[in-house]
Predict the structure.
Amino acid sequence: MNVLTINVGSSSLKCSLIETADGHTHASSHTDWASEPTRYTFTSTESPAVLSEVGWSDVKPAIGRVAADLRVNTNEVIAAVAHRVVHGGTRFTQPVLVTAEVEDALHELTPLAPLHNPSCLEGIVAAREVFPNLPHVAVFDTAFHSTLAPEAYTYAIPQAWSDEWGLRRFGFHGLSHAYCSQRAAQILDRPSLGLRVVIAHLGHGASLAAIRDGKSIDTTMGFTPLEGLMMATRSGSVDPGLLCHLLRENRFSANQLDHALNRESGLIGVSGVSSDMRTVLQAAEAGNERAKLAIAIYVHRLRQGIGAMAATLGGLDALIFTGGVGQHSATIRAAACARLAFLGLELDPIANAAVTSDMDVSTTGTKGRILVIESNEELMLARECERVFN
């Protein structure tokens, strides 16, 4: 089944045409509004890559261009369109065929993910106009964590708040965590049943997940993607009393505080240098003290989280690094693993320095394995879409 995946971010659009049976990507495109001017790239197995500077300011013309390029550069027939939706709340825990009623429900969920769901909806509306005769399926990043037990998803707040306002932990990066848990079982040549893994998805956003038997048992992100680890521009978990203090003292409005915690904290907030881990590492190596502190906090929180996830699982068989930082930063992997020998994890420095995707970088004979996996959210998106029709 050929599925066109659509992944709309706050400043980008990624599309891929994927055959679900073998995972082959026939074509892919990337539109980046963060650059000036907007850049568009398209590649396919039947034509050379194309890089264009375009004047688009929204999703619809970008999806229209993707449709045109697919018609010209591939002979593949698209069976369905799959949309990644960041937040499905408690209502959507499985992929669902998009209807007018589903669109209305997604609009109602916007307050749960105001930075993410509006752009996802924009992509759905645009794609249904461009591909009116194809079925469209919404796949939810929160769905993988719907297996969390009440003790993992319930906040210790007045029960009426949880019941009346739906305040609970949801978890995110579900497509990435799901893919990596499956891929880890393949690499380790073990069935998912009985396998205990901790996945560190470290990118612009960062989260940990504890996976047992292929199911999510715990994760660090919560009601929003702000909870948990220190990230590129997000603070991660902060004492709620500190936030109440800032509001009580009229230091910020609620909206200003939200912006600061999501956009001006994390690596950029502490280092004052950059939100890009590579740049912060370079500054730290050059002696910048704030950059050194930012790295130290990042690694400290990461180690803490890994230990907590392992405790939830009662031990672990493998620790997995993925995402831009997790996959490409040997320095962060080495620092994170430096004090994890008690979990049976020992990093091979040579393998770690020379890593390519989907590798075991632990020393020979250690009880726990350390894997570096290149996540494939698009493939998971396509295969989750396929489930709707089976």
The first strand starts at residue 2 and ends at 8. The CA atoms of residues 320 and 360 lie 9 Å apart.
